[in-house]
Design brief:
Elements: E1 2-3, H1 13-16, H2 23-34, E2 45-46, H3 66-72, E3 89-93, E4 127-131, H4 141-147, E5 152-157, H5 159-172, E6 179-183, E7 190-194, E8 199-205, E9 210-216, E10 222-233, H6 235-238, E11 246-249, E12 259-263, E13 266-271, H7 283-300, E14 306-310, E15 339-340, H8 343-365, E16 370-373, H9 376-380, H10 420-431
Parallel strand pairs: 5-8, 5-11, 10-12, 11-14, 14-16
Antiparallel strand pairs: 1-2, 2-15, 3-4, 6-7, 7-8, 9-10, 12-13
The structure holds 2-acetamido-2-deoxy-beta-D-glucopyranose (6 copies).
């Protein structure tokens, strides 16, 4: 196994904080720099042990030869109505391409608008998720809007949730234009309606899901340690919960941030709070507790929402972290088995699975539909789907060339691999 990143520059921590605005990425940093070095942090580990561009198992470039890939699919393969884990599989060539482009969807966030920002390669939009044991039908926006007629669908979480909502919005808006009806001051929580289908779509900003005091400005620069309550939920989402028919919810990388943890309004410990004489509990503890509190609320609520609980999405920084020159310029997906999840994402995922199983058992006794939305593997296999340097507009034609280019190897280009999360969501709606 060959780790592709390095742990260099451990001591340049404070000076680097200045530039980068994606606060989401700040955390990876905090965790990786502060935690003990015994854990392997490489976000990408190529199990074949070969060079950076491992291509032997991959089919040739699209759109040239995509028809052969379609033919290669076993024509007798089971259809989706039969039991199949849709989250296990591979990305296969598909010349169909995306539902939308930067020209046909106007609501793509600048930092994820890779086409507009000048990303030169386009291969990354010509792959389709193919579950190993069945076929996954392409998302059908008309059918989705009809199924969701009169309903309210909410995405609750961090900027990866926002990334997902924007993908869905772009796809649906090819059928019916959404009308924005609400936004908070920073446009983090938002709501739209699709008037002729009376569908309400919300994204609710709640990166910890539990109550938190965060002292960060718009650029993600912190002026104080986060105070995080592990047993008290964030009212931003719980106050609205009764209005939602469908909920997609997840924790994520915000938990890597330094924080002081509370239970029953009393300090119980912290993560990275050196010098404060508080027990270092570490963020895994907090992650488990917060997910447990969240799922407890959902399973004990009188209101029953069809709930998707999403698992963690690995990032793909290589040869460094986001702030130490890490980048993600691969142009091909990995094949199943070609890459291992790193220890940290693996731990987060185990915690998610354990807490989900316990909640699902409780939920099933109460006739509550709680589904695991297991996007870890589908994400892990797409190192090519991130904005990378194309998080900024035409990065190589800027005047201030001396500034180091910032890479985003966590969020997803739109259009991009995250569009397929909607296919998976639809499949679960339709076939359970
Ligand atoms: C596919 O799905 C249909 C129902 O939609 C079912 O009748 C059929 O037996 C399934 N299996 C195969 C192999 O076609
Ligand atoms: C979309 O991206 C292309 C480059 O791929 C660019 O030429 C075009 O101006 C962009 N259009 C919009 C509306 O952003
Ligand atoms: C929570 O704290 C209050 C005092 O602030 C105490 O009376 C109560 O017993 C505590 N509950 C638990 C479960 O520890
Ligand atoms: C740290 O906390 C413990 C227990 O709360 C206390 O006994 C000890 O004196 C504290 N140490 C310092 C240096 O404040
Ligand atoms: C990716 O970036 C590295 C470091 O800048 C460079 O050596 C490599 O050639 C790049 N690969 C591609 C496909 O651009
Ligand atoms: C939360 O944790 C408690 C205590 O460990 C456990 O009994 C319960 O099953 C967990 N999950 C939920 C949804 O309550």
């Amino acid at each position: 196994m060959k780790p592709l990143n390095t742990n260099a520059n451990k001591h340049t921590f404070s000076s680097i904080f200045i530039k980068f605005a994606v606060c989401f990425l700040l955390l990876g940093l905090a965790y990786r720099l502060f935690s003990s070095s015994s854990v392997q942090f490489s976000p990408v580990v190529v199990t074949t042990g070969t060079a950076f561009y491992e291509e032997k198992a991959l089919p040739p470039n699209p759109p040239v030869s995509s028809s052969t890939d379609l033919l290669r699919e076993n024509p007798t393969s089971k259809n989706v109505s039969e039991r199949c884990n849709v989250f296990v599989g591979n990305w296969v060539r598909d010349r169909t391409g995306p539902f939308y482009t930067n020209a046909t969807c106007s609501s793509i966030e600048d930092h994820q608008n890779c086409m507009r920002n000048g990303r030169p390669d386009t291969d990354y939009v010509y792959w389709r998720w193919k579950p190993r044991d069945c076929n996954l039908p392409r998302f059908d926006p008309k059918r989705f809007l009809n199924m969701m007629r009169g309903k309210s669908l909410a995405f609750i979480g961090d900027s990866i949730m926002r990334n997902h909502v924007q993908s869905l919005l772009c796809i649906l808006s090819q059928v019916e234009q959404a009308v924005a009806t609400y936004h908070d001051e920073q446009y983090k929580s938002r709501r739209w309606v699709f008037p002729s289908h009376r569908l309400t779509l919300s994204v609710v900003w709640s990166p910890f899901l539990t109550k938190a005091s965060v002292y960060e400005d718009l650029n993600g620069i912190s002026s104080g340690i986060i105070q995080l309550h592990l047993d008290d939920l964030d009212a931003t989402w719980t106050d609205q919960y009764k209005n939602f028919d469908y909920v997609v919810i997840a924790g994520g990388k915000w938990f890597l941030k330094s924080a002081i943890y509370y239970e029953n309004n009393t300090i119980v410990g912290c993560h990275n709070c050196q010098g404060k004489n508080i027990t270092q509990l570490g963020f895994y503890h907090a992650y488990r507790k917060a997910l447990n509190s969240t799922l407890k609320f959902i399973t004990s609520s009188k209101h029953k929402a069809f709930t998707f609980f999403r698992t963690t999405t690995p990032d793909h920084f290589e040869n460094g972290e986001w702030n130490t020159g890490g980048y993600c310029n691969r142009t091909r997906p990995f094949r199943e088995g070609e890459i291992d999840i790193n220890d940290m994402d693996g731990m987060m995922r185990n915690i998610e699975l354990e807490e989900f199983e316990r909640a699902a058992a409780i939920g099933s006794e109460k006739d509550l539909t709680l589904k695991l939305f297991d996007t870890t593997s589908i994400s892990l296999l797409r190192p090519d789907g991130h904005p990378g340097v194309y998080r900024q507009f035409h990065p190589y034609s800027r005047k201030d060339k001396h500034l180091k280019l910032q890479n985003d190897c966590l969020h997803w280009c739109l259009p991009g691999p995250i569009d397929y999360w909607n296919d998976l969501m639809m499949e679960i709606f339709v076939n359970g």
